[in-house]
């Protein structure tokens, strides 16, 4: 076979072929980028990545569920008793101070998806109960009874004004 | 790339348009953001009253580089993801014109001649001997002379209207093909890369084939 | 380590022997010209179309109320969606360009002759599958040209005897081209390329049985064959580089040039565009369809014009191998045929005038005439060339073929 014959300068030939393969390989890799990138959320989906919510009309103890990025978000307006109870408690299986979970003590914003298998918990008495496997969360969204391993997720949000929040933006 | 845009801007500044002739004069579209922004300023004033641009969203204008307060003023309380809907309801349009004004998102590429067609059309209005409005490019049009070219009296007025038309066409060309700049940029890199690679492949081929006696 | 893995596989799967037999040790005539690159290019464009098509299908919606909008969504919102779309639309044209050149090479060099008839016929099948795929794909954007092109072409099936009207309704799934048509065309447009892949594999199996022909038309001695790898892999990659430069020039600088302006208008069943015209690769056949004043006649002529190619192995009766290489009259016929195709393409493109109709009819007659006179001209040319004197290798080939034939008939 011709491969065994040292025709021409073998070192130079090898280098040329290797260099060309490298340049070609780089092109193939770059060509994959548009295909993979096209599977990422498109710009219209990204534009809908935030949701505004008007807090007026909610009384202490009220809870609303609103959609954000297709998931339910619980907005809880906590009464002074609830605030005090949550400040006193450190949580359950996933200890975390309440102050870290609410920007303003009166308002709790958590993603209403159970950290166990993803069901949506129901508001029952103090906190929430997930009826899929019995996990329980307190009025700070912290898990107090398993099998859920972690507290309810606090999404990025900020107060646009005293009675308007935008979820999805820190 | 900047040189190309400057050249295009220069060409468009010097070109004159005999727009009343039915033969389409090919215009150079100014693709600079400034021209596109002037275009949408004019459009929001003139065309937006009747025409929608359902595929252009307010957030696209932001991405183009138009200032946020300008965009917010145009969109009012509509979300950023809302399209540029026109102000004329369909029923009113049917009553006034007998036809719903076509959507303009793709107008710059939906006619033979592309942007040159739109330019010639906007400036193609004239007054018939009977005093009725007519258009050289699209005689059956129900659209009134939005830019007022048929009423232009002196050269200065005409030049101003032509410049407005040019800006509108710049905007519509962007609206029909918002990724054009990105695409052409990629084009220079891709073709450059392929020229290098093909040259290398040529030498590899020559090398391998030199093994034959 | 790599050798151990390959040995493990080789015990269970003919990997090394396959690569040796079909690639690194596969004998290929050393004199193949660049016209032989186009088979590989066709395979590459097929992969390109399938890849871009699958990723486009992740965003496209096949519903009359949604399809046009979904394509604008792809063009504007999907990351690099505009690139995928333009690659796919340009790729369709590229596919036909490459295939037509590939066919022209086969006709010119007589590569359809024995023993390569099955290669030619599997290729014919591939062409039909490709045309069907392209036709169905063109409906998907649901533009004015998409809708009316599909309406005109599905209407042609009315020419079917006795059941014509029912066939058209059955094809469309509705009395007019509508949602049912769009949905099924999408399903089939996704399916057909995989049928094409299967047919390509059959085409390649046939190729590896009869081996490539070459520009001289005469099978080279064994010593004049060289292994496909690395010689023709290198040549194919170089040719691919040249192709990609042309292809991406269109994709990235002139993508709109291959898209009819009317297709940027959503389909309107109430209004036909003034000028319906198919994509360029269908123009000659469209011209033949319009050349015959009778509808059934037109459909038959158009169908026949595509199928005529299949008869080439029988129509070409010359025993002189190599196509146009040794046959000056055949060469002239070939170039005249190409010219005729260009004339037909132009006639198909422009709106019909009284002059263009006549030109189209003459060009159609020339088209079919080329095929019909071939048996006679090829034989006459052979007699003339033998009298004039043939190169010794051609004489030897004719003599051995005649001997082979008489040996077979004696048995």
Main features:
heterotrimer, A: 170 residues, alpha+beta, Rieske Iron-sulfur Protein, 2 domains, 4-stranded antiparallel β-sheet, 3-stranded antiparallel β-sheet, 10 strands, 25% helix, 24% strand, disordered N terminus, B: 213 residues, mainly alpha, Cytochrome Bc1 Complex, Chain D, domain 2, two-stranded antiparallel sheet, 8 helices, 4 strands, 51% helix, elongated
Compact overview of the structure:
The complex is a heterotrimer of chains A (170), B (213) and C (411). Chain A is of the alpha+beta class and 170 residues long.
Can you walk through the features of this model?
- The complex is a heterotrimer of chains A (170), B (213) and C (411).
- Chain A folds into two domains: 2-38; 47-167, 3-layer Sandwich (Rieske Iron-sulfur Protein), CATH 2.102.10.10.
- Chain A contains three helices and ten strands; from the N terminus they run ααβββαβββββββ.
- Chain A has helices spanning 10-38, 43-47, 80-88, and strands at 51-54, 63-68, 71-77, 107-111, 122-123, 128-129, 136-137, 143-145, 157-161, 164-167.
- In chain A, strands 5-6-7-8 form a four-stranded antiparallel β-sheet, with no helix packed on it. In chain A, strands 1-10-9 form a three-stranded antiparallel β-sheet, with no helix packed on it.
- The longest helix of chain A is centred in the first third of the chain and has 29 residues, at 10-38.
- Residues 1-7 of chain A have low confidence and may be disordered.
- In chain B, the strands form two sheets. In chain B, strands 1-2 form a two-stranded antiparallel sheet. Chain B has a two-stranded antiparallel sheet with strand order 3-4.
- Chain B is mainly alpha-helical.
- Chain B has two domains: 2-178, Cytochrome Bc1 Complex, Chain D, domain 2; 180-213.
- In chain B, helix 3 (58-64) runs antiparallel to helix 4 (68-75).
- In chain B, a hairpin with a 5-residue loop joins strand 3 and strand 4 (133-135).
- Chain B has helices spanning 2-14, 33-45, 58-64, 68-75, 90-97, 115-122, 155-176, 180-209; strands at 53-57, 83-84, 125-127, 133-135.
- Chain C has helices at 2-10, 15-24, 38-57, 67-76, 81-108, 117-139, 144-155, 164-172, 179-210, 228-253, 283-291, 295-307, 312-315, 328-349, 354-388, 392-410, and strands at 27-29, 225-227.
- The model of chain C has no long low-confidence stretch (mean pLDDT 94).
- In chain C, helix 3 (38-57) packs antiparallel against helix 5, helix 6 (117-139) packs across helix 7 (144-155) and helix 6 (117-139) packs antiparallel against helix 9 (179-210).
- The radius of gyration of chain C is 24 Å and the shape is globular.
- Chain C has two domains: 36-218 and 229-273, Cytochrome Bc1 Complex, Chain C (Up-down Bundle), CATH 1.20.810; 277-406, Helix Hairpins, CATH 1.10.287.
- Chain C contains 16 helices and two strands.
- Chains in contact: A-B, A-C, B-C.
- At the B-C interface, helix 8 of B face helix 4, helix 5 and helix 10 of C.
